[in-house]
Amino acid sequence: MVYAIVRAGGRQEKVEVGTVVVLDRIAANKDGNIELAPVLLVDGDKITHDAKSLAKVTVTAEVLGDLRGPKIVIQKFKNKTGYKKRQGHRSELTRVKITGIK
């Protein structure tokens, strides 16, 4: 079983070939593919974690589409002062499918 831990969008995700992952918005190249930076590679019983060996490893993914996360509502209120503030936020996300770990 081969899997990798990749760094994407300020987080680390465990991925295998065929895994669909939702990441922070990433711009794809003209083919619609991206490369992710591996942090750890597990190939059966062999574990690779040093930077020199990981520089040779490529994790490729195909962009399936862009989407937006759920609405987050931020409300602030201070009693007896008349202060109210309401703010919202939706994260820009990208859905990718892992196509290869080499």
Attribute tags:
102 residues, mainly beta, seven-stranded antiparallel beta sheet, two-stranded antiparallel ribbon, 1 helix, 9 strands, structural constituent of ribosome, ribonucleoprotein, Ribosomal_bL21, ribosomal protein
**H/E element string?**
EEEEEHEEEE
N-to-C span: 13 Å
Mean pLDDT: 96
Q: pLDDT under 50 segments (min length 5)?
A: none
Question: Helix- and strand-based class?
Answer: mainly beta
Can you tell me about this structure?
- The chain contains one helix and nine strands, in the order E-E-E-E-E-H-E-E-E-E.
- The chain has one helix at 51-54; strands at residues 2-8, 11-15, 20-24, 33-43, 46-48, 59-68, 72-78, 83-89, 92-101.
- A hairpin with a 4-residue loop joins strand 7 (72-78) and strand 8 (83-89).
- Strands 1, 2, 3, 4, 5, 6 and 9 form a seven-stranded antiparallel β-sheet that branches. It has a two-stranded antiparallel sheet with strand order 7-8.
- The longest helix has 4 residues, at 51-54.
- The mean pLDDT is 96.
- The protein is mostly beta strands and 102 residues long.
In short:
It holds the Pfam family Ribosomal_L21p. The chain contains 1 helix and 9 strands; from the N terminus they run βββββαββββ.
List the helices and strands and how they pair.
Elements: E1 2-8, E2 11-15, E3 20-24, E4 33-43, E5 46-48, H1 51-54, E6 59-68, E7 72-78, E8 83-89, E9 92-101
Antiparallel strand pairs: 1-2, 1-4, 3-9, 4-5, 4-6, 6-9, 7-8
